[in-house]
Amino acid sequence: xxxxxxxxxxxxxxxxxxxxxxxxWALLEWRDTMAYRAATLERLEAEYDRFHRPVARRxxxxxxxxDAAEELVHEAFIRLAAEIxxxxxxxxxxxxxxxVAWNLAVSRARHQRVVARDSCRLVPPxxxxxxxxxxxxxxxxxxxxxALAELSPDERLAVLLAAQGYRGSEIAMSLGxxxxxTRTLLCRARTKLRRQLLAWESDSSx
Length: 206
Fold this sequence. Notes:
Number of helices: 7
Oligomer: single chain
Helix content: over 70%
Number of strands: 0
Distance between the termini: 108 Å
Number of domains: 2
Order of helices and strands: HHHHHHH
């Protein structure tokens, strides 16, 4: 019968594993990585419990589709997990989730507009159309889109959120700003838009 190997002390020598064969620094690094991932998961779960429901509820109210809002918020949290894992945890996770979910909703709306525009090609060619009204609506859309494009990202987001009925405190949280700073930013953005629209009205009335 084979006997287990005996160490210098006379006691049976314990079997070694691959983990035991690692150098000490590698074991420490591995433990730190596991601890970091556990902390990351715990942080993400905490942020999800805190922000998921209110963000999904507000977004569902805006886009009139609670199921789609849930999907968008889940996607936003997936992106938050990637940021935390990469060591880039946002300073204000709630505002970050709000902004990412809103940007995803805007992208979704743009995609739906493209689909709707393409589907218009299926309209019979003899269908009656009010060409003057369509021309004015198209020009106004172009002017508003151009005016929004000249705003900063925060100004544009503030205007769009305000247009959807968000309160000032909610907009401030989404932007990660104080309520006073948000009011100033929103006032400045609206002034820029008003200037563009007044210029368009003046030109179109000539």
